[in-house]
Amino acid sequence: MKTEIIDLRNNSDEEIFKKLQEYYLDNKLIAIPTETVYGLSADASSEDAVKKIYLAKGRPSDNPLIVHFYKISQVSPIVEIDNAYVKKLIDNFWPGPMTLILALKNKNLISKSVRAGLDTLAIRMPNDNIARKILKHTKLLLAAPSANISGKPSPTKFEHVYNDLNNKIDVIIKGNDSHIGLESTVIDCTKFPFVVARPGSITLKDIEKLLGEGNIVYNKENNMEKPASPGMKYRHYSTNGDLIIVDEKLENILEKLRLKNNKFALITYKKYKNLLKDTPFKVKYLAEDEENIEEANKNLYNILRECDIENIEEIYILKLKETDKNKALLNRINKASSKK
């Protein structure tokens, strides 16, 4: 299969969107940029198209997908949104990096494979400009997990998608780099208190400010037999080499690393540059310092992918103290290090 590349960064030609709509209706797979990560999209109502997503990614069929949409009227016939707390979330966080898991009203309007046979559906309204134009002009609901090979770091750049899926899917849309860089916050609204099933850039405290304390909690189930959301059961974000979290002072780590002779790298912060001037190994900078969570979120997957390209055998990263703001970052690091 030859993959078509379409650059939409400076192109709003209506004919292109008409062509994309035809592609979707013909069950083609199209990688699109979003503010979180690039997504591998297909018509969410087509069972044949959605099955192609699972095949292209090598994704387990019981791992549900998130459906992306342009306006609420598209999903109100499909899911239950008539809840005061759900309406508050919608009004305050959409469009944006928040996914809601909601009870299904009409199963016939959505592919069974999208929801992995569940009676719930995960939905999101992205705020990336190109993604919104595609959704608006094609007038379709799009199932779109991350546009990568399952288990590997998610793609935040066009080049990441190209490296993983060129000649495996029909189209890659060339857009800007994802400005958030981690997947959306997933909130299970079918339980009460609501549950943060996957942490993201919208934090528990952000949601508590809106809904009130006690109305939202973090997920306690790490390996659900029937996951209601992506990121809850299977291995994610893994590098080819081993990612090792080190709970020591940087000075102590450096002494040990200087004695190693295999191909390894250290992920740390720019504030330590003076300590790392003469190191004989690769150093990757996650952010300026531990307080720069947004910068670290944006850089993590790109760094992990760089390590794979450079055939790094071991990747060392300093252990961080968990906070509400960095919980999503640590979630991804911990999953990558455990290969779960």
**Could you give the count of β-strands?**
15
Biggest sheet statistics: 11 strands, mixed
Mean pLDDT: 93
Unreliable stretches: none
Note the run of SSEs as H and E. EHEEHEHEEHEHEEEHEEHEEHEH
Q: Please report the number of helical segments.
A: 9
Q: Looking across the biggest beta sheet, what order are the strands in?
A: 1-8-2-3-7-4-6-5-9-10-11
Question: Level of helix content?
Answer: 25-40%
Quaternary structure of the protein: single chain
Cα-to-Cα separation, first versus last residue: 31 Å
CATH-defined topology of the largest domain? DHBP synthase
Radius of gyration: 20 Å
Silhouette? globular
- Sheet/helix structural class: alpha/beta
Strand content: 15-25%
CATH superfamily of the largest domain: DHBP synthase
Give the CATH class of the largest domain: Alpha Beta
Total count of domains: 2
What is the architecture of the largest domain at the second tier of CATH? Alpha-Beta Complex
How does this model look, in words?
The chain has 340 residues and is of the alpha/beta class. The chain folds into two domains: 4-184, DHBP synthase; 242-338, Rossmann fold (3-Layer(aba) Sandwich), CATH 3.40.50. 28% of the residues lie in helices and 19% in strands. The protein has helices spanning 14-25, 47-57, 84-93, 129-138, 158-165, 204-211, 250-257, 293-309, 327-338; strands spanning 4-7, 30-32, 39-43, 66-68, 98-103, 120-124, 142-143, 171-174, 185-188, 194-198, 216-218, 242-246, 264-269, 282-287, 314-318. The strands form two sheets. The chain has an eleven-stranded mixed β-sheet, with helices on both faces. A hairpin with a 6-residue loop joins strand 2 and strand 3 (39-43). It is globular. The two termini are 31 Å apart.
